[in-house]
Amino acid sequence: MIDFRYIYMYKINPLALCFQKGDNGTIDGQGQVWWELHANGSLDYTRGHLLELMNSRDVVISNLTFINSPFWTIHPVYCRNVLINYLTILAPFESPNTDGIDPDSSSRVCIEDCYIENGDDLISIKSGWDQYGMNYGHRSSKIIIQRLSGQTRSSAGIALGSEMSGGISNVYVVNLKLQHASTGIRIKSAQGRGGYIKNIYISDAIFHNVRTAIGFTAFYGEHPDDKYDPNAFPHIHSIYIENIQGDNISMAGDFQGLKGYPYHDIFLRNITLNATTTSQMWNCSFVEGYSESVSPEPCDELLRRQHTQEYCSSCIEKV
């Protein structure tokens, strides 16, 4: 049966949805040989993505299992109107860079009802790298992620960046269940990236055995070459995170911004994290924001109060 809400919301061709009901087939990337070549340094080029779509629109990827990708698993780049749902994505925890789903310079993307277990970020939203991303100027925007679950030992549940030079905005994430991860919610950028990450809403997440619940870093500093502009600073602001529960958490929040270009308008609300350590729970540098009902209590930079509805309506556009 065709779900007509996608036709309305994403303007997807109704005929495409006729192929939504798959037979739960499996696509095997046979990544082991590629992981070994990467590990021993014998590759002079990037490993392939298991499924990459470029310059496409009205795409549905549904009811499939993807395993053992050589590199990122699903990579829609320069795409529009993409529905990804009911997928299982699996790779060994030690496999390198096996991201689950990486929307890149794409808009009107819906990812829902997926389980991902891999060796890198479950989902990482991107928009181009350094001057190449800025010059091409295709942002990632109007992205919905809902009812996602999974685990990863080394990386994040939801990541934005670090390739974000074309800009990332209007991202809505709700109902995330994550265990055994390095970071729950992560934003990655660097001096030389330029671009922006703004108008991000994340709500209703449950974390178990996650080292850092929320981590923002402006020092994720790899560059493709030496042609980048060191004066291209990323702008990270208008991030709204609420209704987060976590147990077995080592660190509540780690915010490492850039002097002169701080993270600002970061709003945290209704967050309860049960720590496994009595050491430092928050690390904050060059960040400004607001918080309500957050435990353990955040750093001073995030302790200002502002009415929730006022903040939300001013910084979050409906996707």
Short description:
With 319 residues, this protein is mainly beta. The protein contains five helices and 16 strands. It holds the Pfam family Glyco_hydro_28.
Note the main attributes of this structure.
11% helix, two-stranded parallel sheet, 16 strands, 319 residues, mainly beta, disordered N terminus, single chain, Pectate Lyase C-like, globular
Could you outline the blueprint of secondary structure elements for this entry?
Elements: H1 4-10, H2 14-17, E1 26-28, H3 32-39, E2 51-54, E3 57-67, E4 74-77, E5 80-90, E6 107-118, E7 123-125, H4 130-136, E8 140-152, E9 156-160, E10 168-188, E11 196-217, E12 235-249, E13 251-256, E14 263-275, E15 282-285, E16 287-295, H5 308-315
Parallel strand pairs: 1-3, 2-4, 3-5, 5-6, 6-8, 7-9, 8-10, 9-10, 10-11, 11-12, 11-13, 12-14, 13-15, 14-16
Write a structural description.
Keywords: Glycosidase, Hydrolase. This protein is mostly beta strands. The chain has a single domain, classed as Single-stranded right-handed beta-helix, Pectin lyase-like (Pectate Lyase C-like, 3 Solenoid). It is 11% helix and 49% strand. The chain is built from 5 helices and 16 strands. The protein has helices spanning 4-10, 14-17, 32-39, 130-136, 308-315, and strands spanning 26-28, 51-54, 57-67, 74-77, 80-90, 107-118, 123-125, 140-152, 156-160, 168-188, 196-217, 235-249, 251-256, 263-275, 282-285, 287-295. Strands 1, 3, 5, 6, 7, 8, 9, 10, 11, 12, 13, 14, 15 and 16 form a 14-stranded parallel beta sheet that branches. The two termini are 25 Å apart.
